[in-house]
Every structure is written in structure tokens, then in C-alpha cells.
Specification:
By secondary structure, the chain is of the alpha/beta class. 30% of the residues lie in helices and 24% in strands. The protein is built from eight helices and twelve strands. A six-stranded mixed sheet has the order 3-2-1-11-12-9. A six-stranded mixed sheet has the order 4-5-6-10-7-8. A hairpin with a 2-residue loop joins strand 7 and strand 8. Helix 7 packs antiparallel against helix 8. The radius of gyration is 17 Å and the shape is globular. This is ICC-like protein phosphoesterase. It comes from Vulgatibacter incomptus.
């Protein structure tokens, strides 16, 4: 079975629709979302409703938690606070209630799912580099063979074996026996690795292969929505740069 793993949609309906079309084209049997459906962008309700339609599992990202009242975001930087307040004021009651019901973590067989690090998932720790991934070592034995995470908006993978962590430098790879993996699925709606295309991951449970995929989408339309909504303009500008 092939699973489509999406994360960090961030209210970008143009990117989400492009990714979902590619997920279907690749024959994914089901879709899971690692959270941050909303925030930054201008289409929160559209993205919530689309994810509710297609995702077998959806997690609570930090922007989701802030927008539905499950997290205090007063310490976020000013532009992020503006976008969160804007989002919270526009969510329908149904979508707000749905976001508030989402879990921090979940599991699909031997596949773990977490928005940030699986260590203290409610604290949304980032995993950018092996140094952050090493913090899961005390709980490594309790983790499934592979755990997909989001939050960093990066496409990265780390192998955890023998009390050590190493980064995997590949666009696709297969799981090795006796090794645990942390895999960051990238971002659908706001990539931050210099590639402006939307990103998602797939995992084939038979071949045990992980791969990342890039999808071009109408960035101009998504950015225009942000500008027209009077959201902070940098959230639109950065889409063109992939930062």
C-alpha cells in the first residue's frame, strides 16, 4: 500500500489541490496530514474542508492549535500573530471544532505520525538537523520503524540506530531492518528549502520505500489571495522564493 503524507498546508488551497492531484496520480491508497492545515495563507476553511474530505488521519499542528484556541500564541512574532488572529476570526464553527478535536500524534500500523518531534509532541519541538533528532534517543525503542513529522517545512530523513543518529542524503530510500527513521515530509503550502514547489512524501508499505515529490502550482494566485486579504505581505512574497 502506498501512503501519501502531506504536511504544513498553511491555508494554501492552490498548493493543496495540486498536491492532491499528484497523490492520486501516484496511486496512493490513503492520505495522512501531519498538521498545520491553517496559518499564514488566505484559504483556511477551504483547506480544512478539503483535508476533512480526503485525509484518513490529520494531526494538530501548532498553527491549528493556536487558531482554534488550544494554544497560547502570544509569544509568536508579530506577523504570525496577525495571521493567526485573522485565521481564527474566519474559521467556520465546524472547522474550528474539527481542528480542536485533532490529536498531537497518531499511528498507522507500524508508521508513526507527529507534527513536530515525537518527543513531547505537544511542545512542537523542531527537527532541523541530526542534533535535534538525537533528542529522541531516550524514547527510540518505543518508536515504530518509521515516524513521519512536519513542522520544519524541510525534506529530511534521519536514521536512528545503535544509539546514534545520521542524516540520510537521498531523494528516496528504503528502510533497513533494525533501524528506526524520522522523516520530515516537507511542506505543501510554504516550502522553506529554496524550492518553491509544493512538496509531499510517499511511503510504500510493501517495498518500504520513502520518496519526496515536488509539484508546481499557481503561486501567483495563492500570493494574490494573501495580498488581497491584507495578511502580512511577506507571507505571499516568500512563496515565490521557497523560504
Amino acid at each position: 500500500m502506498r501512503i501519501g503524507i502531506i504536511s504544513d498546508v498553511h491555508s494554501n488551497i492552490e498548493a493543496l489541490e495540486a498536491v492532491l492531484a499528484e497523490v492520486e496520480a501516484k496511486g496512493c491508497a490513503l492520505v495522512v496530514c501531519l498538521g498545520d492545515v491553517v496559518g499564514y495563507g488566505a484559504s483556511p476553511n477551504e483547506c480544512c474542508e478539503r483535508i476533512r474530505e480526503v485525509a484518513e488521519i490529520c494531526l494538530l499542528g501548532n498553527h491549528d492549535a493556536a487558531s482554534c484556541g488550544r494554544m497560547d500564541y502570544s509569544r509568536y512574532y508579530n506577523a504570525a500573530r496577525q495571521a493567526l488572529a485573522w485565521t481564527a476570526s474566519r474559521l467556520t464553527p465546524e472547522n474550528e471544532e474539527w481542528l480542536a478535536s485533532l490529536p498531537y500524534v497518531d499511528r498507522l500500523g507500524n508508521v508513526g505520525l507527529s507534527h513536530g518531534s515525537p518527543l513531547e509532541p505537544e511542545k512542537y519541538h523542531y527537527v532541523y538537523e541530526a542534533e535535534q533528532a538525537e533528542r529522541v534517543l531516550p524514547i527510540a525503542e518505543s518508536l515504530p520503524a518509521i515516524t513521519f513529522i512536519g513542522h520544519s517545512h524541510l525534506c529530511k530523513a534521519f536514521a536512528v540506530e545503535g544509539g546514534r543518529v545520521r542524516e540520510i542524503e537521498a531523494e528516496r530510500f528504503r528502510l533497513a531492518e533494525g533501524v528506526r527513521y524520522l522523516v520530515s515530509a516537507g511542506s505543501v503550502g510554504q516550502p522553506r528549502d529554496g524550492d518553491s514547489r509544493a512538496c509531499f512524501a510517499t511511503f510504500d508499505t510493501v517495498s518500504r520505500e520513502v520518496a519526496w515529490h515536488r509539484v508546481a502550482y499557481d503561486i501567483e494566485a495563492s500570493a494574490r489571495r494573501i495580498f488581497d486579504a491584507d495578511l502580512p505581505v511577506n507571507f505571499g512574497k516568500r512563496l515565490f522564493l521557497g523560504i
